[in-house]
Design goal:
Length: about 475
């Protein structure tokens, strides 16, 4: 079930609130009952004290009068006081007794028994009286022989305490839906900036990649907006690169295709076989050039930073010397066409952490580039050697080299050095640069010992391998 952020917050907040409020409600229920019991007990104590204070003077006068008369009975001191009933819903029917010398019952309420309600003095107690459970308290004057006992049935006390506590719980439960509605609207108000961003994203056109405004955006949502803006920026740069790349590729392909068309037309118009064969050979050269350009374009596309091939690149220990040896063997025919001496240094078997396929493409492009810009009967040499914990891959040629002012330009797409009849696709060194970036290394351009170009790439040695 895919809930919105607003719904999730409502569920989470209400769940936590219900849990906490439930614990507080249960605790408050029992605490309120305890406090109500304390209030009832305090009323009993207060009533006992009031009865004791009011009875002291009148009862002692009666005792003194009886002594003068010589009477040994006190019937008028034992009246039955009739209660008129409760006048308030919270009013409790309190029973009381006043005893002289703890043996003679002087006064009692109509609902009190004529025997002592409790034997506990100056403390609370429970007792069964006439089939009902009573809460009792007895208060005795230490200086005078007066004992006041008060009590009330426990059942009305329990009912009243329960009613008051339940009112507290009802208030808590009633507040929950009100709180839920308040949370719903509060979260909705807080989500308005995110809703604005969502609406803006949904209404955007595919070509509109301007940054999202970060004001007003909650602090918690700002990383998301910043990430979106960063994505838009990279996407915009990627689209611009693709546009330039497509335009440049179309321009580069147009030249060999136009040449192919021209040579094909020449072949059609030729009357002699020799001229026709020459035109067809030019067509084949043009096809080869266009094929090479397309292959380079496809290779560069596969090496795009956002392509799945690059993201899934696997780096393994690769023997650099063996890869160089195999790659040079595939390029010998190109060197023979120009009588170029291609050589490889003495065996130096070392393992480097890289992608074997990309490493082969890198060496192939460097050597092809060297062969292309080296004059006939020149030299191209590949050297592999270790220096400390690094292995150096060097490609040297006897060509014209690269001026210092152009060394930063040769790795750009479709860049060609002027003044050379032998021109390639202009993508070879761009592919080399991309492979080096993937392997987190770089190439250094120097002057070779043959007077031409020296391209040097450093790799980290993994494991020196003994030559068998």
């Amino acid at each position: 079930m895919n809930l919105s952020v607003r719904q999730r917050l409502l569920v989470y907040l209400l769940s936590v609130t219900v849990f906490v409020w439930l614990a507080v409600a249960i605790l408050g229920y029992f605490e309120s009952r305890a406090e109500i019991e304390e209030v009832f007990d305090a009323q009993l104590v207060q009533q006992a004290k009031v009865l004791l204070l009011l009875s002291e003077h009148e009862l002692y006068e009666e005792l003194a009068f009886d002594d003068l008369e010589g009477s040994d009975t006190h019937p008028h001191l034992v009246p039955e006081l009739l209660l008129k009933g409760n006048n308030h819903k919270y009013e409790q029917a309190v029973s009381f007794q006043i005893w002289l010398n703890s043996t003679s019952l002087a006064v009692r309420s109509a609902n009190a028994p004529d025997y002592p309600m409790t034997d506990a003095i100056n403390q609370f107690s429970y007792r069964e009286i006439e089939g009902s459970r009573w809460r009792l308290y007895a208060l005795q004057d230490e200086d005078k022989p007066l004992l006041v006992q008060v009590g009330e049935k426990d059942e009305p006390r329990e009912e009243l305490a329960t009613a008051i506590s339940l009112r507290f719980l009802n208030s808590v439960l009633l507040a929950l839906p009100i709180l839920g509605v308040a949370i719903w609207f509060a979260v909705g108000s807080a989500m308005k900036p995110l809703n604005r961003i969502a609406n803006e994203m949904s209404s955007r056109s595919l070509n509109y990649l301007e940054p999202v405004k970060t004001n007003p955006v909650p602090r918690e949502a700002k990383p998301l907006v910043d990430a979106l803006n960063s994505l838009f920026q990279r996407l915009n740069a990627s689209i611009e690169n693709e546009r330039h790349f497509t335009a440049d590729a179309a321009h580069e392909l147009r030249t060999p295709l136009a040449a192919l068309k021209t040579q094909a037309q020449v072949a059609l118009r030729c009357n002699d076989d020799e001229s026709r064969q020459q035109a067809l050979r030019q067509v084949i050269r043009g096809v080869n050039r266009a094929t090479h350009l397309v292959e380079q374009l496809l290779t560069l596309a596969r090496l795009d930073p956002d392509s799945e091939n690059v993201k899934a690149t696997v780096f393994t220990p690769v023997n650099l010397y063996e890869v160089a040896q195999e790659t040079l063997a595939d390029l010998v025919y190109k060197a023979l066409e120009k009588s170029i001496d291609v050589s490889l240094s003495e065996p130096c078997n070392v393992n480097v952490l890289c992608n074997a396929g990309m490493l082969s493409i890198l060496i192939k492009n460097l050597v092809e580039n060297a062969i292309r810009y080296t004059p006939e009967k020149g030299k191209v040499r590949v050297e592999i050697k270790t220096v400390d914990d690094r292995v150096l891959l060097q490609v040297l040629d006897s060509g014209s080299g690269i001026p210092d002012k152009d060394k930063d330009k040769v790795f750009k797409r479709f860049y060609r050095r002027l003044g050379h009849t032998q021109t390639g696709s202009g993508l070879g060194l761009s592919i080399v640069q991309r492979i080096l970036e993937i392997h987190e290394t770089a190439a250094t351009l120097k002057t070779s010992k043959y007077g031409g170009l020296l391209v040097e790439v450093k790799f980290k040695v993994l494991e020196p391998k003994k030559i068998s």
